[in-house]
Every structure is written in structure tokens, then in C-alpha cells.
Amino acid sequence: MEIATGGPLVAALNKKDAIKLDIHYLDRIKIKKGKKIETVVVDIAESEKAVPEGSIGVYEEVLKSLKLKNKDKIGITLARKPLSISFIRKKLDGGTLTKPEIDQIVWDIVHNKLSDSELTFFVAACYTNLMSIDETILLTKAMAKCGNTLNLGKYPIIDKHCIGGLPGNRTTMVLVPIVAAYGLTIPKTSSRSITSPAGTADAMEVLAKVSFPINQMKRIIKKTNGCIVWGGSLNLAPADDKIINVEKTLEIDAESQLLASIMAKKQSVSSTHILIDIPVGNGGKVKNRKEALKLKRSFENIGKKLRKHVKVMITDGKQPIGNGIGPALEARDVLWILRRDRRKPLDLERKCISMCSEIFKMVGIRNSRTKVLNILNSGKAYKKMKEIIKAQEGKVFDERDIAIGKFKLDVSTFRNGTVTKIDNRTISRLARVAGAPTDKGAGIYLHKHINDKVKNGEKIFSVYSESRQKLHFVREAMAKSQRAFDIK
Amino acid sequence: MEIATGGPLVAALNKKDAIKLDIHYLDRIKIKKGKKIETVVVDIAESEKAVPEGSIGVYEEVLKSLKLKNKDKIGITLARKPLSISFIRKKLDGGTLTKPEIDQIVWDIVHNKLSDSELTFFVAACYTNLMSIDETILLTKAMAKCGNTLNLGKYPIIDKHCIGGLPGNRTTMVLVPIVAAYGLTIPKTSSRSITSPAGTADAMEVLAKVSFPINQMKRIIKKTNGCIVWGGSLNLAPADDKIINVEKTLEIDAESQLLASIMAKKQSVSSTHILIDIPVGNGGKVKNRKEALKLKRSFENIGKKLRKHVKVMITDGKQPIGNGIGPALEARDVLWILRRDRRKPLDLERKCISMCSEIFKMVGIRNSRTKVLNILNSGKAYKKMKEIIKAQEGKVFDERDIAIGKFKLDVSTFRNGTVTKIDNRTISRLARVAGAPTDKGAGIYLHKHINDKVKNGEKIFSVYSESRQKLHFVREAMAKSQRAFDIK
Fold first, then answer.
1. What number does CATH give the domain B158-234+265-391?
2. Please, what's the b/e burial string for A426-455 (b: 16 or more CB within 10 A of its CB; e: otherwise)?
3. Is the pTM of this model over 0.90?
């Protein structure tokens, strides 16, 4: 049928066949083609036209798994429900899951054996009946195991992660070249934006390719000590993506799930030293310092049990970090920092230097701050970034080659005063309406940050877009949104 | 596309269109055709062939809702998530739902506004964070309101319900004619089998039609005081069926859900006096007396708050009730009882008499047992049953006109002794393998019950089937199953 279900393996039977075979909606059947067998969930087609009697309609995922072609002859038999159903029920009933149980659930998730509903029961069970730290660790290991892994045979392996939600904040693209320039290994995988104006992968894509199979990622790291690639193409801990998809429907975030999700990806690239950044406040994932401290303890706890060095920084999430928001504008900020351009955003630079110093300290490097500054100021970091861009088949090494949206809207203030608040959500929203992250050149450039003085008529931010119409939508959105800047 | 999703309204976009419009898997869009608008969940089609660029594929349910035809021009816009998402999340977080919140959730369920995953979150939330009795009542009322209702303008309105799982146990078909013959109103709706060899609707269908729209049901009751129809065709409390579908995936049964489910259907036919039968033990839904007592109290409690007279009987569920198991065999048992045939199953007759006496007592009839026996023995109950069969467009009034499967397998014992156990699950399973409930004449006939003496070589049960091959499958299943009879 060439329609994807986005996960579960589903096949549709004609209603008459289903009655004849006593097969019901959401039953499971085994489909056999030659020697290959796949178990799928049953959907019922009401009409002859969709699925004629005596034939079966299969969704994209089944097509691929069994390599089916039109008119292929297949056999079907009733199948049992997957083993993990009873384990999911156990968790829902408040039980504690064992290693084989968690392994089985994760295996079934990765192999699309669970229906949307069954997977949702698992996510709901872990959300309402919190997982213990031991269960979380088992989940982390199971998720890492059921996917690709990267073994570089080096020590230490550096990694970093930022708990999302803060616009700008493009630290990875500054940090990776500094760490790699010092000679440390940092196989960094990043995500694309889901609801924000840009993920690190989106911004890096302005300069170079970011989708690579895992062995090519390995080659890039061997050449340059580091990389900045999109995690989505690597099939690391694939169960995690499926779980996150379900969580998104209700916008829930089970702590155990968050921990396992992040740590599984680190586990699968064999990281040994991990720096975690938790920005706090104003529309981000972590609302306040208390929550951040709790999360910090959990990360440190799970790190210890996984025998990894984990350091958590709680940072200021009150306003965007950097001036550019949107893939191209963020990439330009990064190159300005690395090329020591006077237009570099100082807040982003400051944050990157302090994060890098922490990483250096974690692996026992003395005078870490001085060393970080040396690498930056000597141009070594920029040189390393060029190497990485080249290794990732990119051609943009200079911010002047970055195309910024050619339609621009300057927003000015009509009073004298001081910036007291910048609303992260509104800024994100406007950047998205302008076209980010799909239109790489779209986004927002902040001329002012919190505590900056402004004068009547002074520009506070500019919106860039690749289409006049989208800029028009931005104007409309501004009229309806929460105010982006508060000036008092 | 003429494929049903079995509930949620889903439409598929071509992948390229989805990227262009920045619409993601599981987002919601509004589809507009003429003046009709429907909000649907988005699926992504990977290929041109399934859904060409610039067009949209809609599933059966959307097709019907918007009355769409091929090549119709439609408009789409991004839509918000349904209101109930945040209420479901509130319940998942342990909150207590209010009337407007529960009303909205039920409305969204009935109108297919929730994805499988979202509905599952609701079911999981009510399962792990138990609903209070007040929430259960709100749910009951909301479910009854969002569907058809039957108003007969009479008092009292009798109803009964049996918590399923026990093979045989065809009390409704004996009870309804007795109650109706006395002049009381009993608008009984029943279910078809889901996992058992026969539901009441399946057995009644051997004698008469069971699918009627609600106004025709009303006419039948006006004529005969009672009916035995299939609830599925009446659209009573339709949210309930969708919730049960989700519960089935994990075989869970939230008590609040069970209560609301049963009481909503009673509420929608305006029953005033309800007798509930809870059989206990041996593979049934309720495992032990303690559980049954708890459930009894909950039923009485919710009955009081709904201002209904609810009486709960806890009965013996150790073995099948009646001799026949399977639609035709059960219908035959019923007619034997009503026609006072010497082959009537005494255990089923005894149970029906005691249930009927309870119902008579509930509405204040004295000497209830004597009256029930009179109605049975005088032939009034049988006469009433014939009226009901005729009103339901049936033609089978005599058990000799019931077709029993022509292939038969007698199972005998090879020892002398006493029957100590009959395994309900094995009996159900064998009856299903023989073809029940789809093949009406298939099933099992028990020659012995618990405590009966048996002699070496004596028949203990017979299996009937409409096909030689299925009988062969029964033989295979018997070799693999738990033993059906224990004899010591």
C-alpha cells in the first residue's frame, strides 16, 4: 500500500476474509513469504477496492521487512501477542521490571512489534509508576544495545548534551572544534529541530553535510578527532525515537525516560566523560532550580552506575544564548566566534569557554581556562572546524558565504529604558513563522539582551525570511503573540 | 483509501507536501470540503503511488464523515490538538477530572478526535490513577449522553448484567421472557462474543434477528414488554466500545471503567432496577470472593448515586452453566427449559429461577419464587418467548428446528470416579476451535458436571462442528490443551 504507519507493522485484510478466518481488528498474524516470516497487527479493509477478497494490503514497513512485491503469494497464520505485552502490564500494575523483561520490551519496540496503543501503555506505565534507577539503567543499556554502536578504541571519549528548549545556544559547534583541536576525541551526534527554530544538526547543515552512516562517521573522527553529525541517520538507540514520538502526543517527559534517552545515545558511542547543560527557566524544559538540581543528582547517579564521568552544569535559561536564531544565523554566530570576529556574540562565547574548561578539568587538564582561550585565540579551533567541515563534505568555511534570508523586518522600541525580559517562546515562534528551520536563512537576530539599555527608535531585533509572504505572517503573529521583549 | 482505522480520523499526505507545509506525522489538520470541516490526524505516505503530490488519502472514517468522493477539491489548514489532551495529561499526573473535562474527553472519543495513542493514555491514566466514585459517575453519565438513549416512559424498567467469562450461562434468554410475561418491561441489550464461544446476541441470533435500530427496538418492546437484541447496532454509549478495544490490547480492566461501561449502557436505556451477576472463579473475570465483594460494594455505591436499584448476586463460576456451549447448543438449552423438556439443563434453570425471584423481590412482588415457577410451568414464559422471537423477525420456535453441527466427536473417560474439575478455559477454547461462535452449530455439549459420578467408557462431553477439518483441529487442540475434565 506504500503508506507508512510510522512504526508498527500493520497489514489489512478484506473484511470477508477476516470473518472467514476469525481474525479481528488488532489481532496479530504471521505473514510468510518464502522462508521469511513477519508478525504484524491486523487492520480490516471494508471495501473490495482497498483490499480485494483473497489478498492482503501491507503497509510500507511490512513491504520492506518482507521485501514483498505486488502479486506475491503469501501464507498467513494467527500469531500470539508479543511477549512484552505481559511485562508492560506488569509495569502498569506497579511492578518492577527485570533485565530480560526490559530487553524484550526494547527489542519489540525496535522491531516494530508493538501497536501504537501497546507502546503507549508502556510509556504511560513508566510515567505513572516511576522507574527505579536500576530499571532506568537497564533501559539505557537495552536501548543502546538494540541499535548501532561506535567503538573507537580510545580513552577518554568526550561528549556533551544540552537539555533542549533554549533558542540559539549553539554551543556544540564551538565546543567540538576546541576539544578536538586539543587532541581529545569527541564523536558528537546532534538532533534536528522538532519544535524549535533550529537544532544543532540544522545549523551545522548550513556549513556541511550532517547525514552519514556510522562507519563514515568513524572515518571522519579518525581524521579530525571529532564530528558534528545528525544522530537520526545513525540508528543509535532507535527505540528512543519511537518512545519520544509517543511522549510528544501528550507532551509528557518521564524523568526516567529522559535520562535513559540521553544516556543510551552516549552509551552507544562509548562516551566516557559527559558534560550535561541544564538551562533553567522561561519556557525551557526545566522550569526551576529545584527541578534542575533533582535532575542533576539523577544524572550523576546514573552516570556513576554506568561507570561514566558525568558533570552537570545548571545554566541561565532566561533568554536566548547568542544573537542569531535560525540555522544560518546561528552558524554565522559560531563562525564569528571561531574566527574571532568583533561581531561574535559574547554570551555564547562565554558559555562555550566555561563549558570547555569544565570538560578539560574532567579529564585532568590543568589551567583549563587558559588552554581553552589559547586554542580559540590562536586560531587552532577555527582551523579544526575547517577540517571537520571538509571531512563532512562541506564547502562553507566563511560566514560571508552563508545565505541569510533576503527579506528583513527590523523591530524597534518606542521608549527609553532597559530590557527586562525576552520571551523564549515568542522568539522561537516568530523564527519558525519566518521559515526556520526548513528555510535555513530564516530566523531572528537579536540586537539587545536582558539588562541592555535601549533608546526610543533603536532596533531591538530583526526578522529574516526567504519569502515576503512569510515575513507578512510574522507581522500578523507579532500582533497576536505574547510580547517578545519587555522594556522598563 | 477505503481502509478503516477502526476509530481515529486519519488522512495521509504525500511526504513532499508534508515537508512543504511543515506538517508532521501525528500533527492535526482541518480538512474542508464545501462547508463541512473535519479535524484529522496526519499520516505520511512515502510514495507517489499511494498518495500523489498535491492530493490527500483519507481513511474510511474521514470519507464517511465528509462524504468525500475521488477528485473532490479540499482545503487543509493546521489545527490545534483537541482540548481533551490536557485533561488526559491531568489525569495521568494524578489529578481529579471535573464534569466539563470528562464530558469533553468522552465527546472527543465518540467523535474519533483522539489518536490511538492519546486514547490509550486516557485508559492507562484511569487504570493507574484510579478514578473516584464521583469521576466514575461523571464518566457513566457522559458515556450514556454521547449516544442513543431509549425512553420508554415506564416504571420500573428491569435490566440485568452478567460479568462475563463463564461458558454457557445463557440466563438472559430464560429471564427476559419470564419477566416480560409477568408484565414488567425489560429492554435487554446483549453483546456478541469477543473471546468466548458465544455471547447472548450470538445465541439469540439462532432463533431471531438481533440487529435493530433503536426505534425498532422500541416498537418490539411496546409489543412484547421485552427484547433480546445486540447492543452493538444501537449506538448506546459508543465511547465505551472504543475504550474496551484499547483495554483488550493489554487485557486490563480498570474497575472504574468496568463500572462505567456497564452502568452507562443501563443508563442509556433508562433502567431503574438492575440485577448484576458476578460469577467467581476458574478463568472468569473475577478471580475470588474478596474481589467479587469489593466489586459488589462498588456497584451498589454507584447505583445509589445514580438513583437506581442495584442488586448484586455473587454466583458460582467454577464450571460452565448449562450443558450446551456454542450459539445453537445454548439456544437449544434455553428452549428446553422454556418448553419444560426433560432434557433441560437443571443448573441453568435453577440459576434463572433464583435470578428472576431476586428481580421480582426488587420491585416488591411477593412470593416471587412461586410466581416465577408458575410463569415457567404454565407455559407463559415460552409463549412470551415466541412473541419476542416473532417480533424480532425470527422463525425458530422449536429446538428441533435448530441446526447442530453434523460432525460430532464423543469424548469418554477411561476410569471410574467423580468429576472434580471442569476447566472453563479449555472448554471455551475447544468450542471455539470447533467453529463457535462463527459457525452457529459448533460447540460442546457437556454430559457431566462437577460431582457427577462417571464410569470407565462413559461419555463426558461431545464436540459438534460444521466441518470435518475443524473437528480434526479440535483433536489436535485437545492433545495440547490443559485437561478439560479432572476425574478422581
1. 3.40.1030.10
2. bbbbbbbbbbbbebbbbbbbbebbbeeebe
3. no
